[in-house]
Amino acid sequence: MLPYAPPESAPCEKYRRIRPVAQLDSEILAALKDIVGEERVLTDPESLQYYGRDWTRFYEPAPSAVVLPGTIEEVQALVRLAASSSLAIVPSGGRTGLSAGAVAVNGELVMALDRMNNIGDFDPVDRTVRCGPGVVTEQLQQFAEQQGLYYPVDFASAGSSQIGGNIATNAGGIKVIRHGMTRDWVAGLKLVTGTGELLDLNRGLIKNNAGYDLRHLVIGAEGTLGVVVEATMRLDRPPRDLAVMVLGVPDMTAIMRVLAAFQGEIELSAFEFFSELALQKVVAHQALQRPFETITEYYALLEFEQPDAAAMERAMALFAHCVEQGWVYDGTVSQSVAQAENLWRLREDISETITPWTPYKNDISTTISRVPEFLAEVEAVVNENYPDFEIIWFGHIGDGNVHLNILKPESLDIDAFREQCGEVSRWVFEIVQRHGGSVSAEHGVGLLKKAYLHYSRDPAEIGIMKQIKLAFDPHGIMNPGKIFDL
Amino acid sequence: MLPYAPPESAPCEKYRRIRPVAQLDSEILAALKDIVGEERVLTDPESLQYYGRDWTRFYEPAPSAVVLPGTIEEVQALVRLAASSSLAIVPSGGRTGLSAGAVAVNGELVMALDRMNNIGDFDPVDRTVRCGPGVVTEQLQQFAEQQGLYYPVDFASAGSSQIGGNIATNAGGIKVIRHGMTRDWVAGLKLVTGTGELLDLNRGLIKNNAGYDLRHLVIGAEGTLGVVVEATMRLDRPPRDLAVMVLGVPDMTAIMRVLAAFQGEIELSAFEFFSELALQKVVAHQALQRPFETITEYYALLEFEQPDAAAMERAMALFAHCVEQGWVYDGTVSQSVAQAENLWRLREDISETITPWTPYKNDISTTISRVPEFLAEVEAVVNENYPDFEIIWFGHIGDGNVHLNILKPESLDIDAFREQCGEVSRWVFEIVQRHGGSVSAEHGVGLLKKAYLHYSRDPAEIGIMKQIKLAFDPHGIMNPGKIFDL
């Protein structure tokens, strides 16, 4: 939705030019084939199109070739070849990203890690398992289940996203309030740097205060520091009998009070919210019923474990307290797994429901307590300037992450809508900046938000990030142009 | 205990020499006093001695002066002065460190942050509070309690250690298995880099995927990247009715099985271990009773919440299962807060109890499942070479962190003992390396373990760390010589 940012004017002096498409000559192609085998270097138009883009459908893919390495040694050999030929590499997982972190628009070599999808070396005491970068999120979730355990990072694209990509983007999702982001489940990772060197970071340890924790630097770096070629992932005890509660609340301030009241007593595993408008759309377009007849401005969805009757009693007492205080007008709680799933759908089906309106989407965060003010300010500026725009709010309010969606008015053509939304972006990011928030809560920066990074990070920070990149990738070949330009 | 490592031979070319003591001339002293005020620049021998060392009593303190800034602006001005005068700075907190990360042995300027101990801006929805770096750990714990909340990072030196130092060393302690390290409670931090620039990192956000997470890089960097001048710390819901169980187990393999069994069902907040020899010493020297008459080689101490009767029933069923399997020979569980405290003392009083034997100490970790093998290998090599050495094992077994203690035989003089322990260190670190462990689980590297860093981190990683240091600290003035030499 947002315009592609042109490269900044002053390139870093250490940074060499990368090769454009035309210069991927037959010599390099032959060398690529020597490393991974003839049939694992793809240059046909369909493959270039397929592997060249992610779920951000805004950029025209233009990679020069796709390679499919099968081992860490092959990845190292490919990176060394790329470094010596000044050829840029885009590491590529499930390409479900929404910020164009994995698109190849500039003649890059796409390194797709699909074949490195081995999962094994499960350790029941440490509760860790070793994954290739190409392991699909759902595959890890299922593996955990088979061991009587649980991989808690979950989100809509779990069926296609890969662990390597999850690590590169520090994927979040719907259980962050209790279980954190992908960051919190990476016990160790192996990285091939931009010089082809293999780093074995943290090796599955829980306590390791021997020097800088480079693992955390790589997590969320969107492939700009190197290629994640293996990860040791932590698993958790499975949750017991999850109950879901949906509450009707009059305003955002009340939602905050409900959150604080419940969190004081109960370990919530999710605290989501959506607006009445979002609920109307979902109920109208999916085979779902309203949770209750009472209409309120917002709805909160809470999830928690109920290992015994006492847990539900505590939750019901909190509900009664919230009603008494005027923070909650009505509510319902699941009595079965099927009911819990249906209540979840009220929140989870929103995104799919509104797709026909080709919505403008933005994924931002502030501290939790600032969300009500933030929402009000965004609504005020949008309503004032574009009174015909319908705003749909939903998101992971328990962690300060809201998804702003604006539906395209039927009368407006798509280009005019996009242009107006570019303006909305600037207003939104200015409000984000004023509240000390993040221009990208969970989707990353990629190409899409590069031009807006300065709203969240100051020049000194960005300068240090660039130097860190060059420490890992002195030739500037690893996913160049993502997050920032050198 | 370990010998001070001489500087490596090839200094990095970007690194300028720092000033020795003699060169802290009257001009610089006057400039320091201009910034913080006459009475906040200390050069008397007692102050130099007091502020120049930490709890590692192995290095002779030799700072050139001590400054006590009161504001972030003063810290920035001091750093800029130091950068322009090539004067090294040692950031200084409670100096309770055990790896000489905060000692000044080379004419450095000690920057003691004691005066920056303001605590405030509590947010009940985000459950965060802003702390100056000089806030004492216990002060934060008490502040949390006053808000009906809980700061879960706890360890022996909580009464003197400061938040800035906890962040610099990523302090761990006795609740890591459930609550993680200091790293997990830092929602945001402000850092003054080696150029005097102020970075405001993460600003209290839960979800923030806008570029590299520099916050995690600073945590555990032991002051080598800059001075932490403020932190936004997260607080948690307080635990409900903690119960403590002590179990007698025949061997380390059984301890691992007990851990796995309990963790499958119960959220443990601690899982510690100690040996029969450790128990004997504690019972003989403190006013404490054995937990039960049965003598076993090791003891496990478990702590968990019991919000209701069901929780204790689950724990008792697990205990019965472990006895049935032959993993546990005997056990006891606390019936009151006083009993829980007394059981904890069996573990917590070990360190103080063995102090008269001037023990050699080492703080190392492996993955949890490798601990039994690791212990056996260390015991074998020590027993073979020094059969008169008494080994006392205890530690946080639930997170793979063991504390190795060797008591000095009465007949051996201290210098000979130290020399022999130097040899033991090399054996221990070789075994650590073979098991992919860490030469410093929670105490950091500082000066003490600098010479051994390569057992845990390979040259490529150390090379990247050095470049990262220079990105934050291009003049090499921030705590130089700690962790590694440039």
Automatic annotation (TrEMBL), chains A, B:
Annotated ranges, domain FAD-binding PCMH-type: 59-238
Short name of any one Pfam family annotated for the protein: FAD_binding_4
EC number(s) from the headed UniProt entry: 1.1.99.39
Domain of life: Bacteria
InterPro entries, per the entry: FAD-bd_oxidored_4_C, FAD-bd_PCMH, FAD-bd_PCMH-like_sf, FAD-bd_PCMH_sub1, FAD-bd_PCMH_sub2, FAD-linked_Oxase-like_C, FAD-oxidored/transferase_4, Oxid_FAD_bind_N
Class of the enzyme per the UniProt entry, highest EC level: oxidoreductase
Catalytic activity entry: (R)-2-hydroxyglutarate + A = 2-oxoglutarate + AH2
Requisite cofactors: FAD
GO biological process, one term: respiratory electron transport chain
Subunit structure: Homodimer.
PANTHER family with a match to the protein in the record: D-2-HYDROXYGLUTARATE DEHYDROGENASE, MITOCHONDRIAL (PTHR43716)
Protein's name according to its UniProt entry: D-2-hydroxyglutarate dehydrogenase
Organism: Pseudohalioglobus sediminis
